[in-house]
């Protein structure tokens, strides 16, 4: 095992032969779970094919509620240096300023976040860099054989491999596509610097159902302004190709109300597009192995509840289930099922799936129910905008009268 230097993670050249918990996948779920279990005194092996997590367009912003989950796990101090805080967001609806809200959010680059979390792994939880070649699971012991021949025996195997299918297939579970090509997430940097942007952060919602745009949100990550856009499109359709070819033109047409304040949407760097599928897992109730985060269920990022769902899995495993499982011999399927039947986990998963479906329907649904809901919501919002403008006008007139009287 290499020593820990300069705040960087330890790397195991050959993982511990026997551990309590082996975690395959050192993304958000795997790394945070390994950290909290290691700090609690559990013997943990964390396995991932890569020493450094590659740049990857995934989640890039969380709110206070999600940060509270990290705080609950004792990870807030680790996370804060890796994120950019923001305290004010301007919200545009129907092409007009709808609200200015004050609440704390945090922007980050996913790859940098994961690497920072890996660097903060406890010394007793080294990262084993390697690929899993063979997996044997059972009611008492789980065995992993890596491609370099090293062997890791564990009482419990945690699969935290995200969207990757190799380990899931080797174990024999199936990913069920509930809705393929459900949405697209689009990410890009703006040429404008945070100090030159009129807003600390801004969110502008789509105006027409036919545009199939949920919203665009612009926020700082370090010294750059980042944009995330969520649309109900497919990768190969003409709209997406046109957006890739000239994103600035299309953004100025879709969101003219904020274009000038956002540097006329001049883009710096590539436009990243990620297709989102809604998926569940079948055949997961089995001896010795538990699936967490996106390795178990995937939802749409548009409603902003994905990280909350993943960190709920980590919290419930760390604080409730794994301690109970390790108290007694064996790791049979009936033991593992307590996690999948956990009401807190079920609520988080159901909320993620329900929010995903609702967000798409309220944005694009053509059925009478959704057209009526949009009309009702937009009418109420328009009245709120008019009311605010009238109050502001009245205040300006009152100030003018007071000035004349003085």
From TrEMBL:
Family matches, as InterPro entries = FAD-bd (IPR002938), FAD/NAD-bd_sf (IPR036188), PheA/TfdB_FAD_monoxygenase (IPR050631)
| Pfam families to which the protein is assigned, alphabetical | FAD_binding_3
GO terms for molecular function, please? FAD binding; oxidoreductase activity
| Keyword annotations of the record | Oxidoreductase
Gene3D superfamilies in UniProt:
FAD/NAD(P)-binding domain
Could you tell me which residue ranges the FAD-binding domain spans? 18-317
Q: What is this protein's record name?
A: 2-polyprenyl-6-methoxyphenol hydroxylase-like FAD-dependent oxidoreductase
Organism the protein comes from: Mesorhizobium sangaii
